[in-house]
């Protein structure tokens, strides 16, 4: 249980931190301007391309991906770098080519993709030449129960035919999102966890139609490709587009979720740190009733509580990363569930406190807080609501 | 301490309820379409005009305003009607001409305006021919401390000259918002609470410029005129535009705040009831793991907690209304502060639960929940953050 | 929905308040001394007898009991008087002959007892000549599920024979507790809610043995007769000792619970008010780091939160009382459950805050706080844990 | 940041765990019997002596003490052993001679005592031949502010003369507590933190009088010597009894507090684990409404939340221990404050949940829960209330 950062981690984190301060944070305003200048545009903005180019030059690239195709970091090594990117979730993860859902999709391709699939899709994704989307969640069903999935993937000769409707396909509004990984049922009569398969569907395949963009509290998340509702109507792809074998969809999804969840938690810690740092600035600069905010009211207590939460939960995230590295994702499941529940919730509280400290500025776009809030609030729902995980974790705990 | 609704209240509430079900709730989708159809338009949408016309015909009009110019209801009589409008805060208050900030502005004019001011501005407001805005909050100062106000109102012969910058002027993006009530200092050297005055500034006066719209969690609140940042640069108006006398601004603001706060709380209860009703629908309709949501997890506990909170806080709101009616707003100050703190916080929790129950649909525009959340969250900041009120209420309590 | 106290209520409450200040609060120290002087004694202490005599002289007697045998107050009339007694739960309820479990037992006898039963047991209870106990809860079963009851009541000729084990029979350690009302099953095969009956068992009946006293957080509650575990082994009583008819036990229990719960909540509000008043004293008297506690930290916020909770919940209790008076206990069930859950929980929080304000003195016997805490904490368990009520209330709410 | 237990720690913890299961837990009932058999006795009970003898034989002795006089463990090594003792706080710490306040007193003597002082008092304490008390807190002053201390230590020739009143001198009711470490002011005019000194006062010195025992939620904590109020009236001891030099009292107190706080937190984790393990047993064994508790209601959520809290906070405690070992207590101050606030609060919540799960048995002496609760609740007050630490930690955080 050694969480101490090794030299490489220390060096990478420092470099990422400098990059954040020097390039990313100043670029936030530029992004706002570029977004405002082209309000109907969904593709990656020029400033993101600029940052990507600079980050790649500095070796801050594909850090999320273990193995030879990526930076080869362990989860424990990646954690503090990922936390740095959480300070600016609209820009930093994309700048480092470490943004969801591309990360998870690249992991799936790296781990389960055929040589052909890897060459065709993983390679350009690793270069950020294209973006991707993950089509799992469906309207009108509780997606935390995988047997609810309505999309069908039917074998027809050398092809698979996909029919169904997905939503919350993050990034899919971006025309550069060239490839979709779609989850559906190949065999509704198989065992509960062998009914599902995953298949690659190029964006421009006939029968694929983007129905509409979705919003998260008022935000369309246009900067990273938004969230789409997509209809798949008798969409035909070559049989070679199936990932792994028929029936392996649930297992692949599970494999994808573990890293996805811990990455979210790592970034969330950075979001919490940024909110706390904003509390600090405001507390020292703002005056009311003749004193700074820091000298009155409950702001000291809020800062203390926030610090305690971040310290304790960061350790739990690091332990989880260490477990995933040493005993594997499956045996780290309890810890993954624990951080999936605890981290977003705590960070939501911290951001909410920061909003309250900033007052009206906190809910507006003059601070990053409201958008951070929308992002972290969604994490309590994404990949299954907290309650499903709490109940599952509790059941395991009561079994002893 | 008799909160029982009298016959008139019972009848009005029932009528409002029917109007809500038959006209307002079905109109929500129409509003969405009209908003989408003219994305750059800030004025009142046709559907609102239609609803206003229908509501006026049914006597559901200006119910918030006591005295002869309004419906003449007491706070206790108005409360349950206002709660009904909270079910659809984008449409119902406007439909009944009971929407902030017009309500508060009309109250100010009715109570403190000269005959000329009333004729010129109150009359068209009561007919909903024009809209208005209230310009109090300023960027860069903690507005909960009235001595922080930076806007200056200088007497110059027969005119007043106004210079300053305001933001969160709700409704001011709407070109129909013809009149602004502006708070500023006429005498920065007077006693703490005699420095401020209020003055009427027609929108088209030279020197008034709308700087930009502000957003709340990504929402621009375009349907009711949004929130503007406004610059006043050497703006000249006739001296007769001053409301009341020089130095009375703080007192007028206080008089305006009491009813404003209780109206917000009444509507908030309706928002909470709607969220709870949405929880109820979802719990019974949605299935996961083979059972309805109502049959598993913590949703029953959430529904129970929500019901208890709404019941207890409704009674506190009614008592506050009754106190305002019987002993006056000033002597109801503790109760007004109490509901200002407790109601939005509780309703925020209830809406947050509902979002969690709806999952991804809850944060999107497919349910009214995320926008309700943004609205209720802002109430914890508007008119002074909760913390200022908590501290003030606590100080009074400790004095005994 | 008129909760205004009428003249009689106002007068009685004022009288009770004076009695509390002049007689009861000063007697708390005397009680401590009398308890310390006879540490093995379980009977009513002389100071309680003195207070009872004084209270009876002032007409502060049997106020809980509606109808001719009691003071004839409605629940709404009794509520504020009961709240006064909550300020000193060890002494005031007993002083006014309004202490549980005698109150509930007297209600049962008044409502369901035969003329003979009433004469033999109700009359001396109304005079406080004897005390009583209610034997319902059993060790080793979840008593919130009435079908779990293990005690058997078997008809044998002109007698009933009772066998079983009870605990948490409050008051039963007191040798003056002359009569026990025992719940048991007369017909385990009947319908779920017709299996149970209640029967009167005089303390000195053969086969009754007091097994041991139980403690609540270290307190033996010796002042009001403690809590006993009792074994009933082939205990024979005349058939005329059955209350009501066979199978009516569950219904009688339900009838008893409603008033019992609201009485607990009324007193709990008084406990909360006392804790808040102790916070107030301490905040103004105690100095640390050069200022009073009232001038620093979070104590103002705690006082404000406590005040808000007490105000809102008092109204909910009053509404519940009013409903019980006007539409009956059964139709007030939702509200009774709501206050049963919400009031003790809130008051527990308030007392916990007060303990924290007092520091070490707060957990010791130098303030009444720790013992108040033990009492209120137990209310979250008594008559079914909060969770059972939350779940039931939530189910009803979700049914709509 | 390596928290992995080394071989010695692993082995010691395993041995302690076996000792707990085989000797300590079964002895809890014996202790109850021995306490009941001699209700007026304050000294160490025979069962404790038996356990001490067995523990010493197994090398489970003085594990808290670093350096040659103790077991020489680091904080990180001691942590998991201390956690084991928290499962049975009445017996296990005493059995291992690791019980407060003796631990802190031995640390003070080992670190600051003269050779003579060590020989006379440390040696028998290390053998558990005598017990000791720490006399710091005073009635009527806020002890978290050290300048409030009223006790005076006056030099008079070769002696010091001590006058003052202390309370919450834990262990001092035990006649075997042969030595008291007393904090008082030698120079009230010195700098704020140089006014205080510590001095050794043998129990039998003239002028020392035990005023009374204090209770914690009704418990007299008789098993470990209770808590005494003590009067010191012109008590004379040789000048050589001063610990360190005049004016060093505050520094010694600070040195004593760091380890004291972390030890409390380590044990608190064990208390939390025991409560959670009791929840587990009950959830699986108890039936209501036809199912086990584990299958219904919110108990799964409670178990999950408890597990998450324990995991996160254990890591924070281990990090704190590691920091104390590597950078020193002073530079670990933020973390020490953090765990001092967070751990007892979380464990209190867990124990409260367990009480609720057990119902009436939970507040009685039939489970260890109520007494565990009283103990953990007191920790939120001991060594300064949470609020003082929160405010201090928050101030540091806002300074950045």
TrEMBL record, chains A, B, C, D:
Keywords: FAD, Flavoprotein, Oxidoreductase. The keyword Glycoprotein does not apply. The keyword Flavoprotein applies. Its cofactor is FAD. Residues 133-234 form the Acyl-CoA oxidase/dehydrogenase middle domain. Residues 9-127 form the Acyl-CoA dehydrogenase/oxidase N-terminal domain. Residues 247-396 form the Acyl-CoA dehydrogenase/oxidase C-terminal domain. Pfam families: Acyl-CoA_dh_1, Acyl-CoA_dh_M, Acyl-CoA_dh_N. PANTHER family: ACYL-COA DEHYDROGENASE FAMILY MEMBER 11 (PTHR48083:SF13), MEDIUM-CHAIN SPECIFIC ACYL-COA DEHYDROGENASE, MITOCHONDRIAL-RELATED (PTHR48083). Belongs to the acyl-CoA dehydrogenase family. Homodimer. This is Acyl-CoA dehydrogenase family protein.
């Amino acid at each position: 249980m050694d969480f101490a950062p090794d030299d490489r981690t220390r060096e990478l984190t420092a470099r990422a931190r400098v990059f954040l301060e020097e390039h990313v944070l100043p670029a936030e305003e530029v992004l706002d301007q570029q977004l405002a200048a082209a309000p109907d545009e969904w593709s990656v903005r020029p400033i993101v391309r600029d940052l990507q180019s600079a980050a790649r030059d500095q070796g801050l690239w594909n850090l999320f991906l273990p193995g030879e195709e990526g930076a080869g970091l362990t989860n424990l090594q990646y954690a503090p770098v990922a936390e740095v990117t959480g300070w600016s979730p609209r820009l930093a993860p994309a700048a480092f080519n470490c943004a969801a859902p591309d990360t998870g999709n690249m992991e799936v391709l790296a781990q389960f993709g055929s040589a052909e699939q890897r060459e065709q899709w993983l390679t350009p994704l690793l270069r950020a030449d294209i973006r991707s989307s993950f089509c799992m969640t469906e309207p009108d069903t509780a997606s935390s129960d995988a047997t609810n999935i309505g999309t069908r993937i039917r074998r027809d000769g050398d092809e698979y035919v996909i029919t169904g409707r997905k939503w919350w396909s993050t990034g899919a509004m971006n025309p550069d999102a060239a490839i979709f990984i779609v989850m559906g049922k190949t065999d509704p009569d198989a065992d509960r966890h062998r009914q599902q398969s995953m298949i690659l569907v190029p964006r421009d395949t006939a029968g694929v139609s983007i129905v509409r963009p979705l919003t998260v509290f008022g935000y369309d998340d246009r900067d990273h490709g938004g969230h789409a509702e997509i209809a798949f109507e008798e969409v035909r792809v070559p049989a070679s587009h199936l990932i792994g074998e028929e029936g392996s969809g649930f297992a692949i999804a599970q494999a994808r979720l573990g890293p996805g969840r811990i990455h979210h938690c790592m970034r969330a810690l950075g979001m919490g740190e940024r909110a706390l740092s904003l509390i600090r600035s405001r507390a020292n600069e703002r005056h009311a009733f003749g004193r700074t905010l820091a000298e009155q009211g409950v702001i000291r207590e809020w800062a203390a509580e926030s610090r305690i939460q971040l310290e304790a939960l960061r350790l739990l995230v690091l332990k989880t990363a260490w477990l995933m590295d040493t005993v594997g994702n499956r045996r780290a499941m309890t810890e993954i569930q624990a951080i999936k529940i605890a981290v977003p919730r705590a960070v939501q509280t911290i951001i909410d406190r920061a909003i309250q400290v900033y007052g009206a500025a906190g809910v507006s776009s003059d601070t990053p807080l409201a958008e951070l809030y929308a992002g972290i609030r969604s994490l309590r729902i994404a990949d299954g609501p907290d309650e499903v995980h709490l109940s599952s974790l509790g059941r395991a705990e009561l079994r002893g």
